[in-house]
Amino acid sequence: MKDLSDYELWESLKKGDLKAFSTLFKMFYPLLHNYGLKISNHNTQLTEDSLQDFFIYVYEHRKNLSSLDSIQPYLYAAFRRHLLKDIKKSSKIVDSNSKDDFFVDINFSKEDLMIQQEIKDFKQLNLPLLLNRLPNRQKEILYLKYYSNLSNGDISEVMGINYQSVSNLIYKGIKALRQDVLLKNLVKNIN
Amino acid sequence: MNSKEYNKIEEFVNDPSFINWVNKSQLTDVKFWEHWMYQNPDRKQLVLDAQDIVLGLSFKKATLTEDKVNGEWEKLEQKIKMTSQEVSCKIPFYKNRQFQSIAATLLLFIAISGVYFSNTSTTIIHKAAFGEVSDINLPDGTRVKLNSNSTLSYDDSNVREVFLEGEAYFNVKKKPATKAKFIVKTNDLDIKVYGTSFNVNNRKAKTKVFLEEGNITLRLKNGIEKKMTPGDLISYSYENNRIVEETKLIRSELQTSWKNGSLIFDRSTLESAMQDIEDTYGFDVIFKEESIKTTLITGAMPTQNLEICIKTIEKSTNVTIVNENNKLYIHKN
User: Fold this and answer.
1) Could you read off the pLDDT of A32-53 as tens digits, one per residue?
2) Does ipTM exceed 0.90?
3) Which residues on chain B are in Cβ contact (under 8 Å) with A143?
């Protein structure tokens, strides 16, 4: 089962093959679970309930699914939509703009990052703090790129923004991060 | 990998093949970049700096246990099997044992939840974004103006008790028949009101209340109660447990001009004026020189047009303000 390509795995699912579905589930559940926690601001109950509903929905609509060459971006995009719907339902916010950016506010913590102790630049840094200062969209894009290793094309599919915007936002995010790093180093050297 | 010059770190960091080289995960990419570095020794430092950033942005992988994942799968499988069982059953559905037990459970659930539904209430939340002033009419007839970056919330089962974060001006509707109080809560204090107009500013870990008309009792979070009469201004911080300010204002418009879209200053320090501007527009304010903080400023400026606001300040005091990266830098001329 593990040697099947994404395309073949997905086709098996469409035919109702539970074994294939189980393989798919076990492959992507941990990733989607982590993504869900980040989107829902660590609401484990909401994320796990949403995941169950999501996978059931996928299975029940298997006959209508189109064929895929790459499962990961599709699942990410679809689950993101599904989870956001659940979050908006449970948030009871009235008359404020309900754009995704408002709801998806990723919070990075030290536990998320493998801090490379040997890199002198990063030793004194509070990298999560710097990351958290970035605008919401940039945070989510950096998360998708560096945690889930999605390509810029995949990311544009997941977040529903165009490819050029993805590249630009990554560029901006890294630039801002680097300026913070340089600034901190400058201050360090002066002291 | 197309027409990029690779003169800036951001180009490296954005490139998947470069990331692969850093993580040593694709042989072709590793070989490519090793060769590239050999051919471009002048940019070696750039590469190393970029490598630092990519490594720095390494996230730990998901740490769900296999048991957990298997458990979730089993839950899912159960649900899938249940729905397919109902479909493939040959006996009439109402005779199906499983259906009967499910139907019974549903009826029981509806019966029980009937009781619960009538007890739940919904929380209503109103938010105003930066640079925005929002008018709200509460169900009891009270009118509230919500200032920039502020949130007002309440339970629909108790609409005369509201929670405020930020700033708002209240026009509370008197309830002479029931004599029902209206209560405004912030982190620092509760305000008990009997049909009245007043301004509440809860920013920066303190709450400032200014009473325009009517009468109010403040119940500070440390237990002390303070009665207020029109013109009184009290500012209390629960975090520091002290009354920061307690005066009588003659010119109420200094506290409430924001409602009409302007900020009015009457010999305020530039530092405190910029604080109000920071609260309104959401931009960080950075003074380049200590001495200009105490310059006094008098005048009126708009709350919804940053450009005019900046120009007004520059003209009335001797400073230049530069807006860069959503930060306002102020320095002497």
Assistant:
1) 999 999 998 888 999 999 999 9
2) no
3) 59
